[in-house]
Amino acid sequence: NPLVLVAYPYLVKAFVNAYATEGSEQLGPRIAGILQKKLFKSKDYPKGDSVQSSLLETQLEKSLRLSSRSRQKVVATLAQNSTFWILKVLHGNFSQNELSRVPHMLQPLLEDYFNNKKSRLKSGFIKEIFRRYPWTGHRLFGFLLEKCTSTKSEYRSTEALALIEVVLKTWVSGKAHADEDAPGGLQENLLPLCNLMQQLLSKPMSKGSRRSDVRRFFVLALQAIARSKLSEAFCKALRPDAYAACESYLGDKFRPLLKFDDGVSGKNINREEKKSC
């Protein structure tokens, strides 16, 4: 029903106002119940020519802002559910190329998350967006690599690494197949990925739990590289000393993860490339 898109912003506004105005607390749960039953949990969603991407993107921007700034948990939770629903409608009606603005809306939130200790954004919320709509993470992959490399906080670096892992899993699982030619893909960011791996090998995480996070990242990265048939390009992009460090770090797992044939040696590829330079 196209009227759903007309009613939606008014319902959300009424919900937020209910928690901002004394004496209106009972109205909030009633509105939330309507939104949950009629929209968020419904299998159906608006489709067709009546759906306008520009209007939905405006609502998406508001939901993202509310989810990262509201001090009231109930409001932030509804804003997150609103975000998932709007993304479902956008994803179901438009191509990924038509939705190129969406990742740009997520980037300022992540920028604030990495740079501002007081940010209320929950990384689990962003992870869920990446899981449901892998193309959003693909287009932010280069940005996440840069943040993981440049951030001074080990905690934030670990958080960035966790977001990168979610994106890598979509390539490993094959969910990225339909989006493999999109800008911001694994091949386009192979060199920044190599740089991050080299940095992690040269500056190990201090805590044991975080060291295990790094090891899991390496395994996922190599699995994604192999799945995308980029093993040879990866070995050429990696410096010889970094290649040796990576091989030493992963031991017997390194070669099988890259899925080299018996007659192909990643080390030989790496050496031959450097000799030809």
Structure characterization notes:
Helices cover 71% and strands 0% of the residues. Helix 1 packs antiparallel against helix 2 and helix 8 packs parallel to helix 10. It is built from 15 helices and no strands. With 277 residues, it is mostly helical. It has 2 domains: 94 residues, no CATH class; 143 residues. The radius of gyration is 22 Å and the shape is elongated. One of its GO terms (cellular component) is nucleolus. Keywords: Nucleus.
Features:
277 residues; mainly alpha; 15 helices; 71% helix; elongated
Which structural category do the helix and sheet elements fall into? mainly alpha
For the record, give the distance between the C-alpha atoms at the N and C termini, rounded to a whole number: 61 Å
Q: Kindly report the average pLDDT value.
A: 87
What would you call the shape?
A: elongated
User: How can the largest sheet be summarized?
Assistant: none
Number of DSSP strand runs: 0
Elements, N to C (H/E): HHHHHHHHHHHHHHH
Fraction of residues in H or I helices: over 70%
Regions with pLDDT < 50 over 5+ consecutive residues?
A: 261-265, 271-277
Strand percentage: under 5%
Query: What would you report as the Rg, rounded to the nearest angstrom?
Result: 22 Å
Count the domains: 2
Number of helices: 15
